[in-house]
Amino acid sequence: MTDEGATTRRRDIQGLRAVAVLIVIANHAHLSGFGGGFVGVDVFFVISGFVITSSLLRDRSTTRRRALARFYAHRIARIIPAATVTLMATMVVARLALGSAFPPTLASDVRWAALFGANLHFMASGANYFVQGLPPSLVTHFWSLSVEEQFYVVIPLVVTLASFGSRRRPQLLRVFFAVVVIVSLIAAWRLTSSNAVVAYYSPLSRMGELALGGLLALTPSGGWARHRGFSAVCGALGLAAIAVATLTFSDATPFPSYRFLLPVAGAALVLWTGEHQVSHGPSYLLSQDPLVYLGDISYSLYLFHFAWLMIPQMLPTPWTFDGAPTVETLCAIAMAAASYHFIEQPLRRASWLRDDLFSSLLFVACAVMLVWNVTLLVH
Fold it and tell me: What is the pTM assigned to this prediction?
């Protein structure tokens, strides 16, 4: 859900982010035909694994410590500000809007989300994303952000350590990522049949999606992939795979199981061939300005959209007028744009935050304490 600097980005990747967040929103808004829109999260995972691994491989720092410090400081500057504002705003707005209908577990959910352990919390509590008739937690969607952050704790260590003093680092990293993909696939398959809630939230069953993105970053496209026609066909097949999963999966589909391979492979095809479709093919379409901008604000949009869609339905008199999901989504887009321009970008560029790991860690501690204090005051 997060990205790197604009100087290193590919416009088609931003467009793919936009597609991912839009199908997630359509699913959460219960729009007809988007029963499998939750696979947008799986698309995000592949993108994140690809972008983060590419960023680590590009780092020219002279020491392991500096490389890791740069990475973690940049991640904190990118992720923490908007997430903190979202969590606090969700608590305050829910209390003001819902009154006695305020969810009794929301404070606990928000605290875990602030620690990026939402997936572990929901896994332990048996929370089911898809139970009909029961509104999910207003921060349920933070489970995916938590999985990403857990990935970011481990993988940069592996990539950075392998990137120093070894001429065989690409081969070693490819083997490592391939093993993670295989183990994760087996775990997802086995767990889905034995404990669907654990399978859905567990980092073990999800890490393979991020690792596949990392494997792609280590496998430059060449040969046939550089051919205009071939790359366009592959890109089209990739988008078609995501569309098929979106249109045919539903709340009743056992997931992730082996089925996550469909949207994940689709995203991988788009990423692998996209840089060879600058002036043609599906990636050219993904690179159009409106989609690129939605991709730019997709992180904040993902964070804010869920409360906008859920709180109106939890009101004593729910919003039931025609077009309510459209109005709610437009409000979420407006808030995401404001967050992107006035919170994300300024703090992301702040040298005191992104270039100093100690200051970044202190910022994280303050953000967590601030969120927890709000939960105590509001609850």
Answer: 0.93
